[in-house]
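## tool: complex_structure
## caller: assistant
## args:
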Amino acid sequence: MPFFFVWMVPMTTLVLLDYASVIVFAVTGALVASRAQLDVVGFGFVACLTAVGGGTVRDVVLDRNPVFWLADPLNIAAALLAAVVIFFTAHWVESRLKAVIWLDAVALSVAVAAGVLAARSVDQPAAIQVIMGVMTGCLGGLMRDVVCNEVPLVLKQGELYVTAALAGAVGALAGLWLSPGSPWAAIALCAALTFGLRAGSILFGWRLPVYRARPPQT
Amino acid sequence: MPFFFVWMVPMTTLVLLDYASVIVFAVTGALVASRAQLDVVGFGFVACLTAVGGGTVRDVVLDRNPVFWLADPLNIAAALLAAVVIFFTAHWVESRLKAVIWLDAVALSVAVAAGVLAARSVDQPAAIQVIMGVMTGCLGGLMRDVVCNEVPLVLKQGELYVTAALAGAVGALAGLWLSPGSPWAAIALCAALTFGLRAGSILFGWRLPVYRARPPQT
Amino acid sequence: MPFFFVWMVPMTTLVLLDYASVIVFAVTGALVASRAQLDVVGFGFVACLTAVGGGTVRDVVLDRNPVFWLADPLNIAAALLAAVVIFFTAHWVESRLKAVIWLDAVALSVAVAAGVLAARSVDQPAAIQVIMGVMTGCLGGLMRDVVCNEVPLVLKQGELYVTAALAGAVGALAGLWLSPGSPWAAIALCAALTFGLRAGSILFGWRLPVYRARPPQT
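## result:
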């Protein structure tokens, strides 16, 4: 490996975060596969793409070697297991679209923190940490939606998504600044901000002003 | 190059396999371009994307340097030649969609074996060899279909595609276990399984049970 | 960094070219975001994807470390600034689609040259320089259009796009051959060819013969 770690504790934390986001993203991928009526192997394929897509782009761009799921293929096993479980249980879910949206919000909250900490673990500056947080969070779901031909959640008009990821990534930096010795403040702050903004957007319609071709004349 | 090869023979075999899958995938890309009525340069672009897409992602994720077509740009030349030939001959083909489906099955059979052997050549464990086989096989065609706005073959409801790739990749492992000194048993077993399952799926409707929102009550 | 530069001057030029293509591509991304009525953070996301997508794939495939915008995060800042400016000014533009098409042609002209020079800076052969020019130019816009569900400009039937990029890349090689000491001849020739062919295609319908399923019988 072409780099060494600054702290060992966060590395373990990072592994746990990657697992958590892998599993929850895998569930969202499997649910989208159920909407496309694929077979169980198709569930596994979409689940893996969603689960490891964002983190893979992050690791390739950062030149972290090996990519996280090559270092630990149990990530893939976890995603596949999640896909199989969903294949047999998705019909218990009342609204699969709703489940996708909410679980995606959970996975996003965790993945953004994982991205920030991964960039920090290879000593990238703060701006890159924020960008990697947003990328890790958003790209897996984006691949899932593009491949399955759903309207990408990330670009759904008038919802906070990239904004939530961005706020969470900045929150993670603030958490690391407040409590430099431990990553947990960063993770908690990031998850609370990301999930809070997503939830507010889904439930109460929180949004930023969207672009209008013709703003109302005063 | 950050690694050395365990065996030299399979490396040559690997080069040949990459060529074979490059050319056949390029033909499918050019046929899809003909359905979109592109010009000859557009044929070349889609052919190259399809031909080297899966192997490029494989090499980037495995950190194999240089990527196979940088090491040997003749791969690109072969893909371009195939595109030009198809540009002038595609109207001889009675059903271009049928030709895409069958040639894609051939290319898939070869590319899966190439992916498994490439992962093995850099000493990855068996699970990663299987995943790289599936990725190398499936991603080029997936890029072709997403970019050209066709329904991705890889996710077509009720067909064996990822399943065929997965079975072939496992078959390749079995072949390497049965005959560790030569890659040809692995290649033959992989191609037979992948192509056999795809063909059975296309001709006879072989499939795994797909997900149904409401399974029949007994 | 695993390589050293052959000439120092072009490296600076390369940085400038990357900036120029980043900013103009970011503007096209923001204009496409305005067509999708996203909020300001969505503008930034699409702008960044478009602006750095092609160059990122180029650097990852060439194994140039770090990727250009990791080496200089101001690229991202420039793309975000462009997105914010467009968010507040896009309604001044009479036809945003027309603006996208023309600015995309400008960005393409610059990005192709940047790709050729980047491949040359790591001592790749001429064929790879041409391919990297085409890739750097075409992939950012392709990602923008796939993610935002627009018909990809790059594959629009009966327009010169990849052809323009290809001609420009070959022109850049010719420029470097004519005037090996300075990159400016290459950049000028590349931009003139790429932009000229795109403009001719948009204004006067210049095109290559497209594939026809049934060519007229004589």
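## assistant note: The two ends of chain B are 60 Å apart (CA to CA). Chain B has one domain: 9-204. Handing back to user.
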